[in-house]
Specification:
This protein has 14 helices and 15 strands. The chain is an alpha/beta fold. A hairpin with a 6-residue loop joins strand 11 and strand 12. Helix 12 runs parallel beside helix 14. The termini are far apart.
């Protein structure tokens, strides 16, 4: 088989290995409760499904890559309500086909390797798509570990001074997959300051921004040209939209917020110059959501009731698993937000060995080592099964451990 050298050099996508292990156990007759992959099983709200149906037309045309004006306006209005930051729907928002494709392809559109800005910073353990996109773009990748002693935030001071000039993109993801950690607004302010000083892009993957438990989480969208926008996390008045969000690009999606993974609908928002680059690039790859999906997305971004109900369901499942894990003597690290629990494995065992032990008992969880070297010693539970399945899993855990 012919393959690009970049593809050939890549390890098997970790969740492929997990799928293979699940298939073997199922074939042995074990019924599985799957906490492995973060694919919500919650129902998509009826008002969103109805909007999708209402958006169907007799004939279908190619969707415009810039997205429907109504969708860009709905996204900008949501950003204003949620974070208090005014963004221009015409120049600071591009709807995307979910966030995965946008994150993967972003380096192709923005990294200029010959100029010397050849480095893409990623954090690990983490979602591998930004790194993979960087490699296909021919960029050099710098991996920063997320360690519990640092609150699962990257240590910016650990980056050698000479590296900053080479950075083109700096990827962060909070609330974080897999640790569930959140980033304070001060972290975004400091990283944005460095982005402007060294002229790189702060790329913030905020797919889990709405799955919080103790209170709304901060966003890079609240940092505007050195002035903090007034929003859910507090702060001063927003800067002029035309100047806001210099060197900042935020990626978000309806997949987790609204249980719409199959719809493939998200957005990129931020620095107007970068958004102009994205608008020029995206017709080449043709990945705008279908028009009927965009019309359903307008409804999803405009409604908070269904999001609050989803948070309540995840909170109930989280409480069930946290109780069982405590009873089993397993310590949960971070996990303040998202639908993930990041759990220390027992001393003297590896992440993969402990996951195999759970799998033999019918519980699927992801070894932390699958998500990066710094994930060794942890295991991740994605709280996606229904509440009754979580209750059964809690009973299995207590018996198994």
């Amino acid at each position: 088989m012919r393959a690009s050298p970049t593809l050939a050099a890549m390890a098997v996508y970790p969740f492929t290995r997990l799928d293979d292990a699940k298939r073997r156990v199922r074939e042995a007759g074990v019924e599985l409760i799957d906490f492995g992959i973060g694919d919500p099983q919650e129902p998509t709200d009826p008002i969103i499904r109805q909007a999708l149906v209402d958006g169907l037309r007799e004939s279908s045309s190619y969707p415009v890559s810039a997205g429907l004006p109504e969708l860009r306006e709905a996204i900008a209005a949501w950003v204003g309500r949620r974070f208090g930051t005014a963004i221009d729907p015409a120049t600071q928002v591009v709807p995307t086909y979910g966030s995965k494709e946008a994150i993967f392809s972003f380096a192709l559109a923005t990294v200029d390797v010959p100029s010397g800005k050849d480095t893409v910073v990623v954090t690990e353990p983490g979602y591998p798509v930004g790194e993979r996109g960087a490699l296909f773009a021919g960029a050099r990748v710098l991996r920063l570990p997320l360690l519990e002693r640092n609150g699962f935030l990257p240590d910016l001071d650990a980056i050698p001074a000479a590296e900053w000039a080479r950075i083109s993109l700096f990827w962060v993801n909070y609330p974080n997959n897999p640790t569930g950690a959140v980033a304070p607004l001060g972290f975004y302010e400091e990283l944005a300051r460095r982005a402007r000083e060294h002229d790189f892009l702060l790329c913030s993957d905020e797919a889990y921004s709405e799955l919080w438990f103790d209170g709304p989480t901060a966003s890079a969208l609240e940092v505007a040209d050195g002035a903090v926008a007034a929003g859910a996390s507090g702060g001063a008045a927003a800067a002029d939209p035309a100047r806001s969000l210099a060197n900042i690009v935020v990626f978000n999606t309806l997949s987790k917020r609204s249980s719409m993974t199959g719809y493939r609908s998200g957005f990129v928002a931020g620095d107007p110059e970068v958004i102009a680059t994205m608008r020029a690039f995206r017709p080449t790859i043709g990945t705008a959501p279908q028009e009927f999906v965009q019309r359903a997305s307008v409804v999803a971004w405009s409604d908070e009731r269904h999001v609050g109900e989803a948070r309540a369901r995840y909170a109930a499942k989280r409480a069930v698993l946290l109780s069982a894990l405590r009873d089993c003597g397993l310590r949960v690290a971070a996990s303040e937000a998202t639908f993930y629990l990041w759990v220390h494995v027992p001393e003297g065992t590896t992440s993969e060995a402990f996951a195999e032990r759970l799998l033999a008992g019918g519980i699927v969880a992801t070894p932390g080592s699958y998500l990066g070297p710094s994930g060794e010693g942890f295991i991740r539970f994605a709280l996606v099964p229904p509440l009754d399945a979580c209750e059964r899993a809690a009973a299995i855990l207590r018996d198994l451990l």
